[in-house]
Amino acid sequence: MQRVWFILCGSVAVLSVVALRSGVEIADVSPVAVVVAQTQQNGNVPEIPFTSVPDYFRYSPDMNLGETLGVAVNSKGHVVVLNHPGTATSGPLYGNATTQLLEFDNTGQFVREIGKGVYGLGYAHSVRFDKYDNLWVVDKGTNSAMKFNPAGYVVMNLGRRPEGFDSFAGHYHRPTQAEAVPRDGYFDGPTDVAWDADDNIFISDGYINSRVAKFDKNGNWIRSFGSHGRTEPEREPGKLSTPHNMQVDRQGNVYVADRGNRRIQVFDNDGNFLRIVLLNVPYDKTRQPVLGDLSPNRPDETAPWSLCISQGPTQYLWTNDVEPGRIYKMTLDGKILGMLGESGRGPGQFNWVHGLDCSADDVLYVADMNNWRVQKLLLGPEQSPPTAAANR
């Protein structure tokens, strides 16, 4: 594998980009000259000190969390947790709908549940706040992306939930990624949402359609980009396999967690390929995963699951893998600046992180999915977090 530098308009930008095989054609980047450069290694990445706040979220014991798929913080510091509570009293056991949107105030106290009984909620995958404090929910089960205003009313829906009429006979058929034929305005297994400075809306679509869809701020279709590809020689720039999370930076560039291909792909605002970022910090390949067998041929690079771009004067990209279970802080061009955590079930350990919020410079909220919790992490030297009693 080779690193490349892109030379743009006479200036040099050093990017963490990988040419996946010798002689690969990198489409849709003209007028850009490509020059081979030395591979950048991420072998000496420092650990980021952090503290996990115990019992930060406070709620009744009759509303225990299930799998937590997302977390988002608005401008008031209120936190919304995307929870899959399941049910112990009604069926079916497999394939049932399960989604809650739980809002907590800036001290961790439960406030309300948003969206009870909303038609587009069934098996939601991600939550995000836009800059106007509207809450967006992307539901991979109903193929919908919904916008809730701050009061909690649905004010926009993108995509369309398949109708529950008799001809489905209780089953909705989804094609494979290779079989899928995407249609403008429709989704199949969408995963995430992001916006550019002009409020254009981007939806990663997702588990089946293997693309990114772009709409204007009013929900009008503009275009899509990306297509399915996983195994060599298809694993080339622009090919996607489960685009699982997404963010947009201030310049309008789109970052896609191409989970099935173990990479982050970066595109410009029109969907032209820019670069590839890898999570390639060395790790103990003999360490037993928390879930699953120990593979004898573990790859050097690990798969990104969640993405978050910070909003401070300098923007940083946060992401994570499932094994070895680390969270990474990166420059937007792909240099890994630090990392924290590991897989496990204890405080400060993670069991399939499925969502991140990095809206504050010194705090991370982590949707720790298979540990059935959201962790609040204070970044920096060891701190003494407030106790649950003090929070009350």
Report on the structure:
This protein has 392 residues and is an all-beta fold. The chain has one domain (43-164, 178-391): Neuraminidase, CATH 2.120.10.30. Helix content is 1%, strand content 39%. It has 1 helix and 32 strands. The termini are far apart.
> Are there runs of 5+ residues with pLDDT below 50, and where?
1-40, 388-392
Q: Provide mean pLDDT, rounded.
A: 87
How much strand?
Answer: 35-45%
Q: How many helical elements?
A: 1
CATH architecture: 6 Propeller
Radius of gyration: 21 Å
CATH C-level: Mainly Beta
Number of DSSP strand runs? 32
When the domains are counted, the total is: 1
- Tell me the CATH superfamily: TolB, C-terminal domain
Helix-residue proportion: under 10%
Please state the overall shape, judged from the principal axes of the Cα atoms. globular
Q: If you consult CATH, what is the topology?
A: Neuraminidase
Give the N-terminus to C-terminus distance in angstroms. 54 Å
Query: What oligomeric state do the depicted chains represent?
Result: single chain
The helix-and-strand class reads mainly beta
Largest sheet: 4 strands, antiparallel
